[in-house]
Design goal:
2 domains; alpha/beta; Rossmann fold; 35% helix; 14 strands
Length: 293
């Protein structure tokens, strides 16, 4: 098992003919993901060669779905075109849309996040590294060679910390790892992932990575207290940030005590979630929990 992405995921890449789309399509194919085609308006009817694999290019997402049976899209489209690309993928009825693009206008994000919610489409991102279910499928830019399959579920605001935690716990492995992105508005939240991991038979323990700013971690802590029975450990980036300073992602805005690393740590610990001071310490806490199961 895994959540949202697995062996039955058939992926199209919106923007596959661009440099980033080509590069990461190559990487997804190399780790066994079932990438079945790409979408670039105006280039339909062509194809792109990836070693011994030839992938068709379509003008529209709906045409790609009809021809390939795709159920997942990864979006590598410049920011000014991302809104329309994501909306098209949602309208086409895909199960999962992963938006990698950074710098998407917040007004566009707000619109297509609500569109996805109304349509019942799982949207991850924007400004995120994507999602990987090791040894099953990889949709996005997460390196596939740093870990393997196992019992840990990971949800993270930070792309680089997603990779570090996967590497720190590579000896145990992951059911699914998700980088949700750190923008003020994102399609998938910590709570969405916690709910899915709680229901997933493969996932035995959960690692949650947050960062200073906003109240997403505090809300996640409330959800854990009421709905999550599996052990959770957390890491909050930003303990060394100067007080009152905005750091990193656009969503990391601190107002008073709300949004600080200490406030988030206290919220987690109040509901029984152990918080590591470093990624390595967080990984060791998780190992200890699994050894005691």
């Amino acid at each position: 098992m895994a959540i949202w992405l697995g062996l039955d995921s058939r992926i199209i890449v919106q923007g596959m003919t661009g440099s980033e789309g080509r590069k990461h399509t190559t990487r997804m194919l190399a780790c066994g993901s079932k990438v079945v085609g790409g979408v670039t308006p105006g280039k339909g009817g062509g194809s792109v060669e990836f070693g011994s694999t030839q992938l068709p290019v379509f003008d529209k997402v709906s045409e790609a779905i009809e021809s390939t049976g795709a159920n997942t899209s990864v979006v590598f489209v410049p920011p000014k075109f991302t809104g329309s690309a994501v909306s098209e993928a949602i309208e086409a009825g895909l199960d999962l849309v992963v938006c990698i693009t950074e710098g998407v206008p917040v007004a566009d994000t707000a619109r297509f996040v609500n569109q996805a919610l109304d349509a019942g489409v799982r949207l991850i991102g924007p400004n995120c590294p994507g999602i990987i279910s090791p040894d099953k499928s990889n949709a996005g830019i997460i390196p596939a060679n740093i870990t393997g399959a196992g019992p840990i579920g990971l949800v993270s605001k930070s792309g680089t910390l997603t990779y570090q935690m996967m590497y720190e716990l590579r000896d145990i492995g992951f059911s699914t790892a998700i980088g949700i992105g750190g923008d003020p508005i994102v399609g998938t939240t910590h709570i969405d992932a916690l709910e899915a991991f709680e229901a997933d038979p493969q996932t035995q323990a959960i690692v949650l990575i947050g960062e200073i700013g906003g109240d997403a971690e505090e809300r996640a802590a409330e959800y854990i207290a009421e709905h999550v029975t599996k052990p959770v450990v957390a890491y909050v980036a930003g303990f060394t940030a100067p007080e009152g300073r905005t750091m990193g992602h656009a969503g990391a805005i601190v107002s008073g005590s709300s949004g600080t690393a200490q406030a988030k740590k206290e919220a987690f610990e109040a509901v029984g979630v152990t918080v590591g001071r470093t990624p390595s310490e967080t990984a060791e806490l998780l190992r200890g929990i699994l050894r005691g199961k």
